[in-house]
Amino acid sequence: MKHSLFATIILTLFFYSCTPEKVKIQIIETTDVHGRFFNYDFATDTQKNGSMGQVAQYIKQQRQQNGEILLLDNGDILQGTPTAYYSNFVDTVHKNIMVRILGDLHYDAATVGNHDIETGPKVYNKVKEELSFPWLGANIIDIKTGKPAFRPYTIVEKKGVKIAILGILTPGIPNWLPHKLYKGLKFADMVETAEKWMPEIKKNQPDIIIGLFHAGLNPAYGGFKKNAYKNPNATLRVAKEVPGFDIVFAGHDHRRTIKKVVNTDNDTVTVINGGSHAKWIGSAELVYDNKNKRIESITPQIVDLSQYKTDKSYESKYGTYLDSVKNYFKEPVGWLGTELCPQEALFGPSAFMQFIHQVQLSATNARVSLSAPLQIYTCIDTGTIYRSDIFALYRYENYLAEMNMTAGEIDRFLEHGVSSWFNTMQNKSDNLLNYNEKGHLDAPYYNFSSALGIHYKIDVTQKPGNRVTITQVDGKKDFKSEDTVRVALNSYRMVGGGGHMPAGAGIDLETLKERNVLLSEVPIKNIMMKYFNNHDSVRIDTEINWQLVPEKWTKQAKQKEIQNF
Q1: Pairing mode, strands 185-187 and 140-142
Q2: 331-564: CATH, from 3.40.225.10, 3.30.2130.10, 3.90.780.10, 3.90.1150.10
Q3: Residue 19 — very low, low, confident or very high, per pLDDT cuts 50/70/90?
């Protein structure tokens, strides 16, 4: 017995003598990858920066230098490119390409993003079953059971250090997606969710607690009040108001950020947003003091992946898959007789937007179409149109919706769009578009909505809120503000995305549900392909149904500023 006790003591002393006093742990976060699994650009048939292949090269280097690393993804990875679309909706027999890649790279955990939900339940439920690591979403609640539909948190061990990861995503999904894409689910408040799960996480006595939140850092974005219940971008609120987190990784808003915030227990929390599209990633080098059971230091970093080439073994492993996707998207869908340049859409009526409006009106019974350019750089040339061109025309997986709106609501909808779109010109040398201090557009171009089916003017000398004057609705000049017309628009706008409905048109979210007349069964991309299939040649005659005034000033400004795009 004495010998057994002595042996136990010796083994214990040996164990502690072999445990390093301080441990360095490298934590890596990819976020908002949006299907950038390869460097290949289907629209231009060229290579471009930003892919999981570059991430793979960086990960390989970090493992060589640091041994074990903690590898996390923070959502919005399933949607955004032809490669993702192909795996989600075409080749549905095999494992999703996201599952294969993240599994092969040995990710430890991921959080669900709103665009992952946008792929629909068939896709995200299949992915959830296929993943070999936890896909987290503590605030995604199964309405039937009242319990999380995804795992709320996970605990992993790296170099003997116990690390807990709580996954939460933005609860703003009902504001952006039609109900059929998340049927049976609801999304709880971020702060309440973190408060609920923190005590249970602490019962496991982790050494480090990480928040993996697919939500942004600006709670006022979209016109929300900072402390509003279910604020879509409450990441900083959680970091400050729910003590326990050591590091919080953010996402969703694509804004590369490093912050230090002090929580209500007067502890410092490191907040990192790693950017987007696998061009940048978030990283934190953490030194843990095993002797005193505390974090000694956290060194955050945003890593620019442009200096890393695609890992050769990665290229070899997935080359066959990429070839299959290329072949699929090289299939022709029709003929285009008019060049479509999205840059023109920023400065007035354009063939690019005319085409989108025509597609929306042709597939519905609507009389008015509302839409925005979803890219502003790549022109679609005349000639044969391929599946890949449709993705250049329309980036997102939006569905086509119909709803009833009054003329006054359409007016206010457009006012909301042009308020951040155009500068208030005071003389002919002023800029037409709104720019920030870096010389970039001050607001997202995908919020710059235009209309077809009405005639209107935008006076850029007037202040926001008083710029749009509608002169004709559905061919009627003697219309009234309360006259109702059926409108075609995408599902994101229909449920309030971008603030055009609640903040602009003044239609609250509950009323929006009652206004919906129709929602397409397939994404707008599919409807565009069918439009080409139904026409021998698509030629666009741009209708000049709206104009900017004063005309001389705005024409001069356009000539100068269109060069920026």
Answers
A1: antiparallel
A2: 3.90.780.10
A3: low
Identify residue 283 by its one-letter amino acid code.
S
- Whole-angstrom Cα distance, residue 397 to residue 445? 17
497 vs 212: which has the higher pLDDT = 212
Task: Dig out the tokens for 211 from the structure.
Answer: 């928040």
Structure tokens at 434: 């709104």
Closest Cα partner for 178 from 223, 219, 117, 94? Answer: 117
**What is the Cα–Cα distance from 256 to 412, expressed in whole angstroms?**
33
Alpha helix positions (H), 90-211: 97-104, 114-118, 121-130, 190-203
Other Cβ atoms within 10 Å of 146 Cβ, number? 8
Hey, what CATH topology would domain 21-324 get?
Answer: Purple Acid Phosphatase; chain A, domain 2 (3.60.21)
Confidence band, pLDDT 50/70/90 cuts, at residue 396: confident
Write the pLDDT tens digit of every residue in 273-325: 999 999 999 999 999 999 999 999 999 999 999 999 999 999 999 999 999 99
Q: What is the pLDDT of residues 156-176, one digit of tens each?
A: 999 999 999 999 999 999 888
Other residues' Cβ atoms within 10 Å of the Cβ of residue 325: 26
In the sheet with 516-523, reading across from the earlier edge strand, the strands are 450-452, 368-371, 484-490, 399-406, 516-523
Residues in contact with 409: Cβ distance below 8 Å, sequence separation at least 6, in sequence order: 505, 506, 507
* Residue range(s) of every CATH 3.90.780.10 domain in the chain: 331-564
What are the residues whose beta carbons fall under 8 Å from the beta carbon of 360, sequence distance 6 or more? 366, 369, 371, 400, 488, 489, 524
Token couple for 317: 């492993």
**Ranges of CATH 3.60.21.10 domains, the chain:** 21-324
User: What's 96's DSSP letter?
Assistant: P
Sequence-ordered alpha helix ranges (H) in 262-311: none
Q: Is the pTM of this model over 0.90?
A: no
262 band by pLDDT with thresholds 50, 70 and 90: very high
From the list 27, 26, 36, the residue with the least C-alpha distance to 279 is 36
